[in-house]
User: What shape does this take?
Amino acid sequence: MSSPHYHSILDYHKAFMSSEHVTPEELVDRIQKKIEESETYDPPLRCFTQLNWQLAKQAAAESTIRYQNNCPLSVLDGVPIGIKDELNIKGFRTNCGRKKDMPVNEEDCATVAALRSLGVVIIGVTNMHEMGMGITGINPNKGTARNPHNDQHVTGGSSSGSAAAVSSGIVPFALGTDGGGSVRIPTSFCGMQGMKPTFGRVNASNTSLDTSTVTSIGVIANNVADVALVMNLMFIKASDQRFFNPGCFNPVRSLSDKPFSELKFGTNTEYVSYCHKEIQSVFETIVKPKLSKIVEIEFRELYMSKIAHMNIILSETSQNQQVWRDHYDTLTYQTKIIFSTCKRLALDHYMQSSAQKTRAIRMFKSIFEEVDLIITPTTACLPKRINPNSLTVGELDEENVLKTMWFVYLANFCGLPAMSINAGYTPSGLPVGLMLTAPWWREDLLISAAKHLETELKKPSRFHCPDSQKMA
Assistant: This one.
């Protein structure tokens, strides 16, 4: 089941402008059939856990009228989107992957409200790892979202459903959240492009992330230009004034102020050597030859920063989510074990971890005096094969967690913008992700480099975009 190419946001917009191809209403009908079909697969794709076709069709009908009157709200008008089960959406429940259903939300969180004002059609709530407490995406409560490149391997998490929905071609982009790689990991494992912005760049008010110091709302799309487009609109419509410094604003442009050939990329050979050999091969033989200037850099705070990041995210999760503790008995054993660890963390651990964050930030300031961007693989391991037993009870695999988060956590810990793009494939067809990390507020530089590399690197060897989504 394949299609010539993934559809971009501009593809949808152009098709809607020329109603001979498709209208938003017709597209939603096709998506409904595609999702219903995907649930008959063995195993089911299960990228969505909540759907409300009445709301989606109403939004699509309103969008269709706007296009007929030649007055769309934006380039996103009528474009379908999936939203992670951690962000409040009016008319849906925010269950965070739990078995227990929460009340239906009466209003959108700030970011969803901003996108809705631009005319997007919300298809539904995407699957996730329970409570965001894992990196595989395996969810015994709602069913596990499957990796469209190989349904016997994990999608990555915790934004598993968002990555699967985009990789399968059902939607062109989706929202996720990223506190320890939860956007970039599934982006890498599912062969897509995804970004977490500078901490505080996107408004997280009226969400469970509101008091987190490491988690950001991010975007997963099938091409870099769409990540840039959505991020730019979110920066403008949903910036967080509590953290955001307007003087630091750099709109995402197609070109930065420095040609790609002049960019200095920092990496650490020893750090990368811990990767799976097939990831190393892609990085060394496919990626590095595309870079004009590579600088060997030193990461001095890795071990302590890894512990400190875990202390902070677990402490904040435990303290901020009273509702999760109220429903402790409904959680999987994996999540219960993690929360039992949270209870052992003291204020002193949090304070020491915050001091470590200051030291790590100083380290990155020093690094970015030498280089423009840091470049590494996104993960040190490939998407692991799913253990059938974990589908019903979940799993804790500390070694896999360590390898999966090997590169990603530092951007969360220090609030840096980072992006994963598809770099190629292993001989067996599993995607390999490449991660770029930029200085604070320099998403424009990040996007510019990612866009250049996207055109240089190997294109997807197979597509999972359904034929029923064709617009011509």
Observations:
- The radius of gyration is 21 Å.
